[in-house]
């Protein structure tokens, strides 16, 4: 019977794969069971932790008691083909979250795929069960094997437990430990991210339907109402030029139009949520927005030119003109393999960070990098807005202590009190780039999640960094 139930559900998913409803939200009678249970306002009281709703105030995020909130955390991937958070076959959700909290982390950025929500619509409002998710991604033999392993580690779940029920359990466990959950739209189609040719690069790329994306944002924002520790969510991870389609106008104007529409979708569904807004070129550049340049002519790496821009009236993005003005947090990323940012010295890195968006914190431009010695061109921001470092990473071994990028970011976040999330928690992936059971040396955990990949860096690098951040305490 177990096999027939799984395959019937799998058949239902595949048979309806071409159907996309035209309406932006599910009819009430098609909403998943969890969604019908939640209150239409976020389940969060100003009188109890986490003291929501949150808002921005100048360069800071503040809670309902007007106290500044600071985060440091990890990325927990769940945007791969299974669309189930990695590691749950090795450890229970409770144990994984205990590990996260033991370092002092208070924030988890959970990357997901819009495909998760598309499949709920494809199935007439029913979410996809655990076993079906795993069989579709891993095949029947490995899918059922991993299902058995996940249930053994998490006995409160069954083969029919759905993806969003798993999300809800993780969010609830995290809340009990004082950890915030931040849903992050990592990709449209579930797969390893990111590249110019993966179809997930830019609005209306091969696997990036802008309308489905907005629909998915609204769906997740509604889900968040039932979880008080979900105080924020992202618009989109690492936008970049598409090499699959050449007619998509990769530039600031297209970014602003689409991201504003995405923010509208989130805010209409759940006005309590903070909204993190990413930049151009793998989320390395927000310069035109923080300095209020003309978005028709502002420079950016590999952008599509607007040929008649000089003859048009200038266009400036005014965050204060939107109802979510006090909900937006800028977010930026940086990795050593950047195509266009000089990561050779800390002076060059700090100048780029300032110029590309961290100027919105109201900090002084770094003298060594911006004083003409390295780059110059470090214009101040025109509006104070919070900025967080939502991704950066390196191999988790002794080389971490000598990494120019890693240590420059560390010093920058401590000096300027910048919230951050490192990449990543996952020491292995069920499937990544077509390979099942792939180990990742950039993950904090060992491949079997039984411990830390490098206990020395946990004790002598990550824990001291987190401690020095003076994070918002639970339940204070």
Supply database-style keywords.
single chain, 476 residues, alpha/beta, four-stranded parallel β-sheet, 12 strands, 33% helix
**Record field, number of beta strands:** 12
Output the structural class: alpha/beta
**Quaternary status of these chains?**
single chain
First-to-last CA distance: 50 Å
Instruction: Give the helix proportion (percent range).
Output: 25-40%
Number of helices: 15
Give the low-confidence spans: 1-24, 33-43
Rg, alpha carbons: 22 Å
Describe the structure.
With 476 residues, the protein is α/β, with parallel strands linked by helices. It has helices spanning 2-15, 33-37, 93-103, 115-122, 130-138, 140-153, 163-176, 210-224, 252-269, 280-283, 287-290, 346-356, 367-370, 404-416, 455-468; strands at residues 55-57, 60-62, 72-77, 107-113, 180-187, 232-234, 274-277, 328-333, 387-391, 420-422, 428-432, 435-439. The strands form four sheets. The protein has a four-stranded parallel beta sheet with strand order 5-4-3-10. The protein has a four-stranded parallel beta sheet with strand order 6-7-8-9, with helices on one face. A two-stranded antiparallel ribbon has the order 1-2. Strand 6 (232-234), helix 9 and strand 7 (274-277) form a beta-alpha-beta unit. The longest helix is centred in the middle third of the chain and has 18 residues, at 252-269. 51% of the residues are buried.
